[in-house]
Design a protein that fits this description.
Chain lengths: 251, 251
DNA sequence: GTGATTTATTTACGAACGAAACTGATTGTG
DNA sequence: CACAATCAGTTTCGTTCGTAAATAAATCAC
């Protein structure tokens, strides 16, 4: 299946929440059989749900939905980030969709890694990989994003100090730094960063033009950014000026 | 749909892991259309998965699977137990399937309740009820049963002291008490009990003839048992002799 | 007890399904 | 250059799907 048709299907499904096979076939000018095959593959990747006659969007607040946006780019970023992790290392992972793919990549590489996370989605996402040990922080459960937050989660962090923390971001402004769009999640991520030597950000380049609400980190706090080649020059210059290691995977 | 056919379908699906509609229709002597309707309802309850042409068992370690056994009895037990919880109360819930139904019942009753649990299944199960606040303990994630266990989870308990704890059980022996079949889960449940005033056990009566591996509690530690009318006399006598409040819902 | 309503099931039918065979374009190999 | 292998997509086929209308049994009202 060509990637651009996969993207178009995901776009259409995400816009409509629910769309039937016939409509997809009409809009994309291929047969229904082809659409059905595409949908089966996309369902296997966890990017949508199939039902008899139509395709359903995953819960939009759910990571499965966010995974569906720029899936291939995120996958390449995650593959690159997985190289940064040593065998038997203990890392922290936040709740971003690219972070979930990083965890899955580590699982596939069959390296033993211990993962500390706030995300129940990620814990379940890597269920099938016995080489991954997962520790979840406790706290107030945010059911829409499937993470724990709040003072209890921050207190639980006191038990851990790791070399690397991997997070996503919701936005970036060249003058001021990285942003999140949920105050509770931003708060816990900042606390995680204080207990990690290196702060690594995984994000597709679309976020570099999307300033968001709550500043999470100034650029100089960041060790490495892994993104794709679509990042604006203004942003990449600021990052390198602040001593950030910038890794770009091919588009 | 008659309840006994629903039970038979669940039995057949659970035994076979995967069974097609035609076979179910033959064995139960009804039409395929009727089977399909039954399967749709059972899927809506989360007790199995439908695919084109057949029904699939839920992951057997998963609570969804355990929920499917004696579903109606468990539901009645949960409904009765929900009456024991006050508005604005904070309770602890362990990972049992009947406990999950208790949480859902509390959600449906629209009382505000704060739930502290080790089970991510339960946290997600009650996602849609805004009147429930869920706090999860942190710890080592056991992906098959979707709970956190281990010393970190026990340490997290230090922050909480509640009036009531609700747990399930895997077995009971009249001479020695209640049993679990997983040492890590038994360990954390015992720690939970130390931080709760009343220990309440919710279980269908089938467990009273199934001694299990690890003793969790002697009968005298238990405040209330909610079960169905199928409990053997020998067991109910021992319980009441030990000062346990025994509540039996109709079969 | 009789007629009305509800519940359970079947029959009928057009749409959707998966699997397999087929077609045409692209890629790799000697 | 030829020719096999792979890939993307379509056509075809027998099966399963969901919905709606028909039928039968159980429950209820009075």
């Amino acid at each position: 299946m060509p990637n651009d048709r996969a993207d178009k299907i995901l776009q259409l499904v995400n816009d409509a929440k629910k769309i039937d096979v016939t409509q997809l076939a009409d809009k994309l000018h291929v047969s229904k059989v082809t659409i059905r095959k595409d949908l089966t593959k996309l369902e296997d990747k966890g990017l949508l749900q199939r039902k008899h006659g139509f395709a359903l969007i995953n819960n939009p607040n759910n990571l499965s939905y966010r995974l569906a946006q720029n899936y291939d780019t995120k996958l390449r970023i995650a593959q690159r980030a997985a190289q940064m992790v040593e065998v038997d290392e203990t890392i922290m992972i936040e709740s971003g969709s690219t972070c979930a793919l990083l965890a899955a990549q580590l699982g596939k590489l069959d390296k033993h890694v211990t993962i500390i996370t706030i995300s129940y989605f990620i814990a379940n996402f890597v269920e099938r990989y016995p080489n991954l040990d997962v520790f979840l922080l406790g706290g107030k459960y945010q059911s829409d994003s499937q993470v724990v937050v709040g003072p209890m989660a921050k207190a639980a962090l006191a038990n851990f100090r790791v070399g690397q923390l991997f997070i996503g971001t919701d936005g970036f402004d060249p003058n001021t730094g990285f942003y999140g769009n949920d105050i509770m999640r931003t708060d816990i991520v900042q606390a995680m960063a204080e207990n990690a030597k290196d702060l690594n950000i995984l994000t597709d380049s679309s976020k570099f033009n999307a300033p968001s609400i709550i500043r999470s980190f100034t650029a100089d706090k960041v060790h490495t950014v892994v993104t794709d080649s679509g990042i604006p020059q203004a942003c990449s210059r600021v990052l390198t000026q602040n001593g950030v290691q910038l890794i770009q995977v091919d588009a």
